[in-house]
Specification:
Blueprint (H helix, E strand, L loop, with lengths): L2 E7 L2 E7 L3 H21 L2 E6 L6 E8 L3 E8 L2 E8 L5 H13 L8 E5 L4 E5 L9 H6 L9 H14 L8 E3 L5 E3 L52 H15 L5 H15 L10 H25 L1
Antiparallel strand pairs: 1-2, 1-3, 4-5, 5-6, 6-8, 7-8, 9-10
Main location: membrane
Subcellular location: Endomembrane system
Protein name: Protein O-mannose kinase
């Protein structure tokens, strides 16, 4: 018998995977009884399902990725995102991503509801607005137009800088209270510049508006070769910051003042030499400072009216 447990209580999480006979089941039921009493007293939440069962109702495909099939599903009356392995060729990446999702649970990471390693699936919270790519479409909706302010947009940019993972915009989810959470953690390699440990993502040439110079193929007279491609570090993320912030800010009123305050740090982010770019912490400090200053000045202006 295999049972998947995911518990949230008092900001702590417990995951159990139980195998065994009747005596193990008895111990489990005893534990469950104790926990339910604790939950009632402490206001926690509890979700459980047997591995391999299908308790999901009315699920349909949200998106299909190379390694992952993502469904919108209903579980215990709640909408959730059901993620299943799409191809055994990507099993290693899938298991790595699932493990990272467990290990990095935080307010900036999509909430893991439960998982089952046996049938290669896991469940996360569902965000109606989906990815950050939908930002303009969301703000265009009548019920969300009052959220379309420089304050909200700059806060989203601050969230992005706070997370700063090797992600595309489609891998950031837009929450209902207009914050960002990172969703896809399949590729999160370790970088150690001092130890000579650098990274390369994929085996194809990278293109696009957000690609840093060191990620481009440097040999014009040679065919693309993964062996010849130099590695790079986290400073590729820093290069992207100004472009992502411009995307997030859009044409919102007051956005020009945001860009003015961020001009210097954005100029530093675009330095050709990666070592000369600021660290993520340095960028985050500037963003927080700019946000605080602009909010304070806006309040002063309002009070003066």
């Amino acid at each position: 018998m295999a049972v998947l447990i995911h518990i949230v209580a008092s900001n702590s999480k417990i995951c159990l995977h139980i195998n065994g006979g009747p005596h193990v089941l008895f111990c489990f039921l005893l534990f469950l009884l104790i926990f339910l009493v604790h939950q009632v007293l402490d206001g926690g939440a509890f979700v459980s399902r047997p591995c391999g069962s299908a308790p999901f109702l009315n699920h349909f495909t949200l998106k299909t990725l190379v390694s992952l099939q993502v469904y919108l599903a209903e579980w215990s009356g709640q909408k959730v995102a059901l993620c299943r392995l799409a191809s055994q060729d990507y099993l290693e990446d899938f298991l790595h991503g699932m493990g990272m999702l467990q290990a990095l649970q935080d307010t900036a990471v999509v909430q893991l509801v439960g998982l089952c390693a046996e049938d290669h699936s896991f469940v996360t919270e569902y965000h109606l607005h989906c990815s950050l790519l939908n930002l303009e479409g969301v703000f265009a909706q009548e019920q969300h137009q009052f959220h379309d302010t420089w304050q909200i947009r700059l806060r989203l940019a601050l969230d992005y800088v706070s997370i700063l993972l090797e992600k595309t915009l489609s891998q950031f989810l837009l929450t209902s209270d207009f914050r960002l959470v990172v969703n896809d953690l399949d590729a999160l390699p370790k970088v150690d510049v001092g130890g000579g440990l650098l990274v390369k993502f994929g085996h194809q040439e990278l293109t696009g508006d957000f690609v840093a110079p060191e990620q481009l193929w440097p040999f014009c007279n040679k065919s693309l070769s993964d062996d010849l491609m130099p590695g790079y570090d986290e400073k590729t993320d820093i290069w992207k910051v100004p472009d992502v912030t411009r995307f997030i800010m859009g044409g919102v009123r007051g956005g020009d003042l945001v860009h003015f305050h961020l001009f210097q740090v954005h100029d530093e982010c675009k330095r050709e030499e990666p070592k000369l770019r600021p660290s993520a912490l340095d960028v985050l400090r500037v963003y927080r400072s700019v946000y605080s200053i602009m909010v304070r000045d806006a309040l002063k202006s309002r009070d003066a009216l």
